[in-house]
């Protein structure tokens, strides 16, 4: 199943049909992409989304980054609760959103590693940045 996993319909269908899934995405809220692929994601090193920190953070920025990381547990769980209920109805077993995402075979990441901050990635995460760019005039 070739899908954008944000709405979780593709991962649920792939699990139901027992077929591999390929994810095509720009980024995932709450760093669930790193968690699902078991990729190292230390909050003192990897800047959180929407903080506009660079890869070389000051101590204050690192503390803020860690605090935002801890808040992700609070506001991300309710965000995926309804989708986990839907998955339970369809699959007839308890699964979390992270469990469903972890079954992805390949993650096609729509950003360029050169232009983003450096962070650890797993071998099944492929950068395909630039495919959405317009031609320069």
TrEMBL record:
SUPFAM superfamilies: UDP-Glycosyltransferase/glycogen phosphorylase. It is found in: Membrane. Keywords: Glycosyltransferase, Membrane, Transferase, Transmembrane, Transmembrane helix. Pfam families: UDPGT (PF00201). One of its GO terms (cellular component) is membrane. One of its GO terms (molecular function) is UDP-glycosyltransferase activity. InterPro entries: UDP-glycosyltransferase, UDP_glucos_trans. The keyword Cell inner membrane does not apply. Its main location: membrane. It is a single-pass membrane protein. Belongs to the UDP-glycosyltransferase family. PANTHER family: EG:EG0003.4 PROTEIN-RELATED, UDP GLUCURONOSYLTRANSFERASE FAMILY 1 MEMBER A1. This is UDP-glucuronosyltransferase 1-1. The lineage of its organism: Eukaryota, Metazoa, Chordata, Craniata, Vertebrata.
């Amino acid at each position: 199943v070739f899908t954008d996993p944000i709405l979780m319909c593709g991962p649920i269908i792939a699990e139901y049909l027992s077929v591999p899934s390929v994810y095509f995405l720009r980024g995932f809220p709450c760093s669930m992409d790193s968690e699902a692929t078991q990729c190292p994601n230390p909050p003192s090193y990897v800047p959180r989304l929407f903080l506009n920190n660079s890869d070389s953070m000051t101590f204050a920025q690192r503390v803020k980054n860690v605090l935002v990381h801890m808040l992700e547990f609070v506001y991300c769980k309710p965000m995926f609760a309804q989708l986990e209920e839907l998955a339970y109805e369809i699959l007839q077993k308890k699964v979390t959103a992270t469990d469903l995402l972890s079954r992805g075979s390949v993650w096609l990441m729509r950003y360029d590693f050169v232009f983003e901050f450096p962070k650890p990635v797993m071998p099944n995460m492929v950068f395909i940045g630039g495919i959405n760019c317009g031609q320069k005039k």
